[in-house]
Design brief:
With 202 residues, the protein is mostly helical. It contains eight helices and four strands. It has helices at 10-21, 37-43, 63-74, 83-112, 120-141, 155-170, 181-191, 194-197; strands spanning 2-4, 27-29, 51-53, 59-61. A hairpin with a 5-residue loop joins strand 3 (51-53) and strand 4 (59-61). Helix 1 packs parallel to helix 3 (63-74), helix 4 (83-112) runs parallel beside helix 6 (155-170) and helix 6 (155-170) packs across helix 7 (181-191). It is globular, with a radius of gyration of 17 Å. The relative contact order is 0.15. The structure holds glutathione.
């Protein structure tokens, strides 16, 4: 299996870290959706990261769907079996995914679009949505000292930690760690795990 994309995509990183927790090996192929557009297009005309190229050549996209596939191969899941816990994890992972998506929208709006074509009301809206997601996550993690659904790490923990690291990496001038002390503690604990350390944000 090949996982295509840089770890500076939170979606790639959550797949890579999830694969490690699931004990699934992959070859990491670093291709940029922007700098390597043509090469990327030759392996996947969708030019989306993450792309997972399976051993038989079939390509999968979308981090959640790729993780679903990896879980089916591994025969275990990063979602709890218990219905109520599972809903908790899905809710939290969903919020974290919105945070990731909003930061990516900021990148498109402020780094891909020419400055004179940027639309401030849209930027304001995206930032409000991002703040909404981060405020919810801060309330959810509390003091950051516990995993979010029991003693085992789940997809909620992976997604929240990946989202927070990405937010700080891309928007350090807009989001400060001091405003979100719980997320900062939570992130430090997660980032210290071997599965996270093996997938540094590049
Ligand atoms: N919902 C998707 C989002 C993936 C995504 O938006 N990836 C971005 C990079 S972080 C991308 O491929 N952008 C290129 C494009 O959309 O054209 C997932 O979970 O994988």
């Amino acid at each position: 299996m090949q996982l295509v994309g840089y770890m500076d995509s939170p979606f790639v990183r959550r797949v890579a870290i999830s694969a490690r927790f699931l004990g699934q090996d992959y070859e990491h192929r670093e291709l940029s959706i922007f700098r390597d557009f043509e090469e990327f297009r030759s392996i996947n005309s969708l030019v989306k990261v993450p792309t997972l190229i399976c051993d038989d050549g079939v390509s999968l996209v979308d981090s959640t769907l790729i993780i679903d596939y990896l879980e089916s191969v591994a025969g275990r899941s990063l979602l709890p079996g218990d219905k109520a816990d599972r809903r908790t994890v899905l809710r939290i992972a969903g919020i974290a995914l919105v945070a990731m998506e909003k930061v990516v929208q900021m990148i498109y709006e402020t780094r891909q679009r020419p400055a004179d074509l940027q639309h401030q009301p849209w930027i304001d809206r995206v930032l409000q949505q991002l703040t909404g997601a981060l405020d919810l996550l801060e309330a959810i993690v509390g003091d950051g000292s516990k995993w979010l659904a029991g003693n085992e790490i789940t997809q909620a923990d992976i997604s929240v930690a990946v989202a927070w690291r990405f937010v700080l990496h891309v928007l350090p001038e807009r989001v400060s760690a001091e405003t979100y002390p719980g997320l900062s503690v939570f992130s430090s604990r997660a980032e210290a795990l071997p599965e996270f350390r093996a997938c540094p944000l590049s």
